[in-house]
Write a structure and sequence with these properties.
This protein is mainly α. The chain has one domain. It contains 7 helices and no strands. Helix 1 runs antiparallel to helix 2. The longest helix is centred in the middle third of the chain and has 36 residues.
Length: 162
């Protein structure tokens, strides 16, 4: 997943550079470039939601939580887990009607790319499922008495480090 998301981000950067050089050197702007960058960034973002949590890369403010006694800290982690699960479920539930509406309408992108809008919006429910999976995994760790939000070690196969 990280490889795919990184490739999408890199592709968006390359399209941005192409558009910038095209504007400054040739005085030509491509209408499709802005839309392509936006779509690539949306997919890159939503594909990494669950992975970022597993790697400990979500923004966290632990100053108050770390100052609490262990029982209170566990209760605070449970509240955060329930809120995270609820948010991911709401994100999934809210994205489905829009995805289905775009699919049934056959709505296409504005530029000459002619990408079906439902393909773009498919990133949101997929990202919500990945995020829900992250919080569900954290809940299992919490139920077993572990630190629910401890970062998982990086995959040896990906070569990435936290």
């Amino acid at each position: 997943m990280l490889t795919v998301s990184s490739a999408l981000f890199l592709a968006s950067a390359l399209v941005m550079l192409f558009e910038g050089f095209s504007r400054s050197l040739a005085g030509v702007s491509y209408f499709w470039a802005e839309e392509a960058v936006r779509f690539l960034m949306i997919w890159a973002f939503f594909l990494t939601l669950g992975l970022a949590g597993r790697r400990g890369l979500h923004i966290r403010t632990e100053l108050l939580v770390d100052a609490m006694p262990p029982r209170v800290r566990r209760a605070m982690h449970l509240v955060a887990l329930v809120a995270g699960l609820a948010f991911a479920a709401v994100l999934f539930g809210a994205s489905l009607p829009q995805l289905l509406r775009y699919h049934s309408m056959g709505m296409m992108s504005e530029s000459s790319l002619d990408i079906p809008q439902w393909v773009v919006f498919l990133a949101m429910p997929l990202g919500a499922v990945a995020w829900f999976g992250y919080y569900a995994q954290c809940l299992v760790v919490w139920a077993r008495g572990g630190d629910a939000f401890a970062a998982a070690p990086p995959d040896a196969s990906s070569g990435a480090q936290v």
